[in-house]
Amino acid sequence: MKRKIIIFFYICLLFFLLFHPKEALTGVKNGLGLWLNIMIPTLLPFLILTGALLKTGNIRKLLKPSAFFWKTFFGLSPAGAYVLILGLLCGYPMGAKLAHDLYIDQQISRREGEYLLTFSCNASPAFIISYLSGILLKNKISAVQMILTFLAADLFCMLFFRFVVYRGHTVDSVCVNKIKKETYQQDSIGVILDVSIMDGFETITRLGGYILLFSLILASISFYWPFHAQSCMLFTAPLELTTGLKQIAGAPLPWKSRYLASMLLTSFGGFCVMAQTKSVLENSLSLIPYAISKCLNASAIFLILVFSDIV
């Protein structure tokens, strides 16, 4: 049944492409522009460099001196700390990508990988400062205040999953694949870099495909929507984060309502980001902890903003 629904959905998109090429082309151009102008410049270098660092096998050595800190305060191994740091700095879906890679590389356990999905997959500070705060909200709210609000919600999710869901047991011992480790050590820097570049382009191309697909979905819904345009935004904004935030910023709503909606959507990430996350996980880690945490994160953001009288 699920397969039939998906096939029917693909056929509908194909008909939209064939019978409304102008509207479809506009949507695809918007998605392609987002991919070329934002995702590739900001994410691809991190994908290449983190991939190269992972293949050297030195992540544990780099963070081992601070192992006690990460274990005590975050319930993470040194390798898990690496995922958290880069996930917070690089934004969607870098945390999920690194959690998958380190799990496949046997540097973290499945439990720790899924635990990391609950609080290391967020919008990057650069996205919040430049796009959300600067361009859309015109710096009416301090970007630092917004980042601290997101971090507070992440902390809540981390504590909930660490002590309520996983009952304090988030790190399992793993058996490092010695053959794979020796292979990495024998590879030259050039070979490691070549492989990392190809892996990075493969990942960024896959993520770009999801952006194009969701941009096409957004265009088709907007074209066929029979009711008022404001009601359409309720369905289209959560599809893709950047486009959804732009729709909210241009909506004829009170400023506080636009700010609250923007914060909620940024914390949730949108369904395109969720599909991208599912893609980079490649069925090795479950998407369920991530999906639950995104809903929990958005709820925490709502409560923080409402009860702190920010909105």
TrEMBL record:
Top-level taxon: Bacteria
Leader sequence residues: none
Entry keyword annotation includes Transmembrane helix: yes
Transmembrane segments: 34-54, 74-95, 115-137, 144-164, 207-227, 287-307
Keywords: Membrane, Transmembrane, Transmembrane helix
Protein name: Sporulation integral membrane protein YlbJ
Lineage: Bacteria, Bacillati, Bacillota, Clostridia, Lachnospirales
